[in-house]
Structures
1.
Amino acid sequence: MFQFTATYTDLYQLSMAQVYFNKNQNQQAVFDYFFRKLPFNGGYAIFAGLEEIISIIEELRFSERDIAYLKEHDFEPEFLAYLKDFRFRGTINAMQEGEIVFPTAPVLQVEANLIEAQIIETILLNTLNFQTLIATKANRIRNVAGDKTLLDFGLRRAQGPGGYYASRAAMIGGFDGSSNVITGRDYGFPISGTMAHAFVQSYDDELTAFRDFAEHRPKNCVLLVDTYDTLKSGMPNAITVAKEMEARGQKLLAIRLDSGDLAYLAKRCRIMLDQAGLDYVKIAASNQLDEYVIQSLQNQNAPIDVYGVGTNLVIGKPNGALDGVYKLSFANGKPRIKISESISKVTLPHKKQVYRILTEDNVLIGADAIALSKEAHISVMHHPVEPFKNLNIDDLKQQAMLQPVMQQGKRVYPEKSVQEVAAFSKKQLAALPEEFKRFDNPHIYKVGISNQLKEERDRLIAEHKN
Amino acid sequence: MFQFTATYTDLYQLSMAQVYFNKNQNQQAVFDYFFRKLPFNGGYAIFAGLEEIISIIEELRFSERDIAYLKEHDFEPEFLAYLKDFRFRGTINAMQEGEIVFPTAPVLQVEANLIEAQIIETILLNTLNFQTLIATKANRIRNVAGDKTLLDFGLRRAQGPGGYYASRAAMIGGFDGSSNVITGRDYGFPISGTMAHAFVQSYDDELTAFRDFAEHRPKNCVLLVDTYDTLKSGMPNAITVAKEMEARGQKLLAIRLDSGDLAYLAKRCRIMLDQAGLDYVKIAASNQLDEYVIQSLQNQNAPIDVYGVGTNLVIGKPNGALDGVYKLSFANGKPRIKISESISKVTLPHKKQVYRILTEDNVLIGADAIALSKEAHISVMHHPVEPFKNLNIDDLKQQAMLQPVMQQGKRVYPEKSVQEVAAFSKKQLAALPEEFKRFDNPHIYKVGISNQLKEERDRLIAEHKN
């Protein structure tokens, strides 16, 4: 929906680009997108945002306005002329959107000249970090909610227009629908929403408010029962209206609780509805929900059929950001490395491939191996940091995870609907052993590096230390 | 920059609107925007986002595409025809953007018919909640950083396009510049940025990388010294290049540290620079900074001149969201209230005004009083919840804070630049006594309600309890 231009970037990308341009240093390079730490203390993340970033990159240009603005910032005319014709002409290899992904292993890889690769860095990180965070959060909520209906209600508390993409990512993570109309319009997922407290308040009495609503919105009628007093006013009025609807051959879909003790109230409301012969009327609940509150409600057998989740979902609380980075691994014909005080932050050189390891009968063993892209088969994978930790994978299936999604600046895979991505994600998760999906202290998925990659990394470290 | 259409809303706004439309219930109403809890355990918040929300609301329309989409969602043709001509024609009264604001007191007030007021709710909350959060976070960082230069580096870790507005809000909170080019383009604040590790890595040696950069970016040259080894490689190379620049009559602006112990390294680097006669070369630092880390660096007298702050600023960590709400207080000729189990969540009825209380010589006493809009003068303000707590303000100056910003759907105040808003905010903060600005456990600013408002609220509670 949004029009991004190529100035949706950090200034340093353009400062560096000016130098590459002047020095004829604009050679082919490889950058890896990966993250270092799983969010939410979880056992996996769900890769999301690929579809948008590919669409954005395909169309990314500097506008007239961008060029005029940059003219005031110490860029040279020849370089500005270059930017005027800028478009991304490189190759992108990536895991599939919706894939389950793990730290350290590149999730996406950009091969392009240095200028093009740098100019897209910021928007790529901005898009993938956020959607991956939210899809992962949504999936944690899905995991505790079982087959209950999950709705995203977060737009009002989202971080500005970040909310537009949060709703999409929530669907990938397993949500059923959203209150967000514009994102629903653009991605075609179910939208949902009935009444706020203001609706009830605007009437002199709650019963008339419910009656009017039921009369004009009979198809998906959900009555919000906590404006004045849930059990003494909201529920009796909702039951009256539900019975009036029955008499007209209609059915009240649900009542919604938005305050108070949701477990207690849901149980009381369920009894009241059942006693009135309204066992088909569902109970929806909202109010500062997250995976912990929902888990607790589920453990208490609260008879809630629909959870509406807002703030905590769309801002990915408590993390708020995925620490995804974009690191140079090859340029000007040579492997490249960044040294750090901490070995875990030393980057992995060379163009690489990531292999997911499976048994002969396609069972995930819980390991990904990172190797040089030219390696055909990996015998042993090493812990990237800790010495003496390694795993023999010689006899196991090794599935190459990074596949072309863009070549010469053009998408080379069929566009996928958000439902297709969500279905793929669900399938991948179903194949992941339970211990990695455990809510607390999940088993750690192993990500290792091949012999050759380890040797190359260690050789480059030694080279730079001298 | 972004094109928002009126479907940037929650579906329930439109469901309610359909009923108001059918029932001729689309009467005049008043909604209050306020928040309940200060973020970051701070003593105040900074109101931001007003300029955008007024611009957005002025232009908010349903597009052809919106109408076509809604047609599939059970809305009636007459109502869709109404939406086609929708525009906001109401009045908005608000505090000034950049104002220091406190919980409970309305920061902004919408007077419009119910449909118009509801349709703008979601985007209004989305915009004001986020920018107020980030301006407040930025100001906390400014408070500990003294007169050091503060730069926003957060776009890559921002929540998608939320980052576009985060940079603007950071300026309002007291930042000096940003790496974010597109927002700088649109709001005219200083942008900043030089080189990433990838620049150094792309060369065979660091010295040549620095030389090339200094040759082509001499005006704002900042060299990143930690790609391989800060003290053994980065600094000696930077000093060599700084001396070469001197010989050409140029000056190296700064070196930047992005890893390691920043206090230790900054001190070592300062000594190395000074010993080389480069006392004019500044030291910039980045890497997971927030107000706590900066306070610690300041306490250690780390000789850092420029702080680059990313993730923690632009996602407003740890809160991530301001809990701003939009509550109906008047409709269809009557004051309106929402009852809650908790008295602190009962809403305040009637159209109201907020008064800031000052002494005769214009010193803030640290109190805001909420009153009915028709009250001329408030003698006593009551704690909104706790009985027996009140404050006599009869002899004090009472400054009305909510002023018209939009009438009949048109802006009625002059557009302000982000610099003007930031300057206003700085002035307001200077007038706020230190105890409210304290980093830890700040003094609590009092927000009370007038006698008449209290009586009206209590009368309506009693009415609904019967």
Note: The domain at 135-314 of chain B is CATH 3.20.20.70 (TIM Barrel).
2.
Amino acid sequence: MTERILVGQLAARTDGPVSVSGWVETVRDQKKVQFVILRDETGAVQLVNPATRPAEDGTSQDAAALELTDAISNLAHGTFLTVTGDLKHDERVKLGGLEIKLHSLQVAAAALPETPIAADSSMDKRMDWRFLDLRQRRNNLIFRVSTTLEHAMRQYWIDRDYIELHSPKLMSSPSESHAELFALDYFGDQTAYLAQSPQHYKQMAQAAGFGKVFEISDVFRADPSFTSRHATEFTSVDAEISWIDSHLDVAAMQEELLATAIQAVKDKHGGEITELFDVEVTVPTLPFPRIPLAQAHEIIKARGYESPRTDGDLDPEGERQISAHVAETYGHQFVFITDYHPEIRPFYHMLDEATGLTRSYDLLFNGVEITTGAQREHRIEVLEAQAVAKGLKLEGLAHYLDFFRYGMPPHGGFGMGLARVLMLLLGEASIREVTFLFRGPTRLAP
Amino acid sequence: MTERILVGQLAARTDGPVSVSGWVETVRDQKKVQFVILRDETGAVQLVNPATRPAEDGTSQDAAALELTDAISNLAHGTFLTVTGDLKHDERVKLGGLEIKLHSLQVAAAALPETPIAADSSMDKRMDWRFLDLRQRRNNLIFRVSTTLEHAMRQYWIDRDYIELHSPKLMSSPSESHAELFALDYFGDQTAYLAQSPQHYKQMAQAAGFGKVFEISDVFRADPSFTSRHATEFTSVDAEISWIDSHLDVAAMQEELLATAIQAVKDKHGGEITELFDVEVTVPTLPFPRIPLAQAHEIIKARGYESPRTDGDLDPEGERQISAHVAETYGHQFVFITDYHPEIRPFYHMLDEATGLTRSYDLLFNGVEITTGAQREHRIEVLEAQAVAKGLKLEGLAHYLDFFRYGMPPHGGFGMGLARVLMLLLGEASIREVTFLFRGPTRLAP
């Protein structure tokens, strides 16, 4: 490696020669002095060069100085380069109170002079040039926050002896339903389907005696919707655990997980998030409020809203209303909505014998659903009956149902969309903003 | 949660009432006494019950005792259940020096009486019933080792401020070559391809100024081969870093990463690995040996072997030979083979100006290639010329090439097959043994 100093390390360094590498954010090419803002993954620093211009009277000038001045004049925004120079701490410099007086400049790869996007470009245009869009400090922070959030979740699970899964995304039968399914030819003689979730396999891990598992990986939905919350490929955060008494044991794990992970984000990035997103990261208190669905409907009705859905589920505005109620009543950003009717739940959710409702929940965060969790039906006879009651063909579920024939512990788990959590944590308007490269019905590139 | 005690916690517990949950590994149903081995994810424990049989003379017996004895007699292997009983430490008990005298037994889900696989079943049969196969202690350990290995790698990167990526697996153009490519219909008007690697996108992250990135995720190859080292879907461990001087900077990171991760595995599972796999985990010393490809050919020739490949690459036996040489000469399990000819490397590998060879390496571990690493060509003119020289159409690479037009730092990285590392670490014969659910040309289920 070169003796490269990260911009973030400069403040702690004494004055003297340094070498930094990054890209050109701005150039101010004045007659007598040139300023360059150079950014790397840790910050930005001002470079300064007293311009040496060809003398109008033809007096000879220092060739190297002329060349350096000329090189700076010709720098396009975005060009990656390495510079050497003298670091000087100077309180008068707005940007971090320091600057580097340039000695030399070495371009690694020059940018074309016309940048195809600007700060006010449309989202679609920004997605076309996502690698330029991601150079913004704000966008870079999103993915550092994501990294911290994920690692804290994994650490929570590792500390509790969970096993990390990599379940297959190529399947011989759908993992959830026959809707929204991507299919592909598999060696000319079979059809493979892309996993809509790791549901089958994280349950299989329970039959395998793994006890507690998690997986963070991409899943696929051939969903033609264009909302701010949907994508055709997204990162799903999944966990599944054995020997639970009900879905509330899953909820208890998930709320502790989230509080731990959000605490880690606040500790590491809280200040920067406030600066760049104008959001104060709030670590949620435990337990999160829990409200049965029927009661949620009464609450929002009392607020003057009724969900237009005929299936009894909350619509997006209903989710916002109940979250507003929870925020006002409990000062909480999260709420578990519980006790869903089996008609609006998949066949594998366990039913509560007393109420006939599912042992399941949705978790809402700042008004948007981020999770469905449930206890699963582990008794094969009941499971088959529930599948048949939903009109499913048992043959299509053969592999899945086999998992239950040779012993299975009571178990449950949840799936959570990583991008939704990030969107809501940072107060962004769309998961597109917090996804590295969004995929939608008309978006397959770059 | 029930007041469940994990089997692994029993040894430290004083004698008295306990409740444990798990599955039936064996039943010994003797006339006067019954023994059950119950296993959970942390270990196995012996349950004992003095049998109460219907008296031949018709004397009345304790109904509950009769029922418990009968229930044990009818337990099928694999049945998941919760038992309560009195824990008793007793040095005469072979299995861990303790047993539980049963009070009660509650079956969660009974197994069918005939288990479809046995210890000596073929690999294909075991894969059909993978969830039963995975109940073996040895197989369970594989995935605990995998979890530890991965987490240690991620921790290494997190400690060094890498950003974790989730790059899309659905792409509008191939990420590596047009061979071995899965294609699918995308909403009726486009063809999507499944990512063969995150290559394009981890390079895009360099153009985005992310500096250092990693990703651990599944990638897809429509590879019709049936070797012990190939799969159509596998977990790829990828990293990419900016501002390197050459591929040797990538190698230096990778060897440190592996040494750190293998140390973590040894610390946490070393004893158990030796017990169950008869393998002594060796933490590799740094640096790993580095041998240019041309010299490797000379070395194996001197050992009496010549690679039959006409393209100048090592064949599998050649890899075993050079690894044997390294083991004998340096006592090392790893070796970097460097300086590959551009003909056997992708177009995006950077060439060394002095030698005309690529700035790339393969990493061999115990005789098998686990990684290709390289410095990438970051200069758009050179990159385009190298693509054309390989006969590639630039139009097909348009999105990728765009990443290089607006500034790009020098960079490089590696991709490593997780299953290969696990296979070689544990001395297994095939990646199928260390993959949760293997996918091959004729294997798409369960």
Note: Chain A touches chain B through 107 residues (CB under 8 Å).
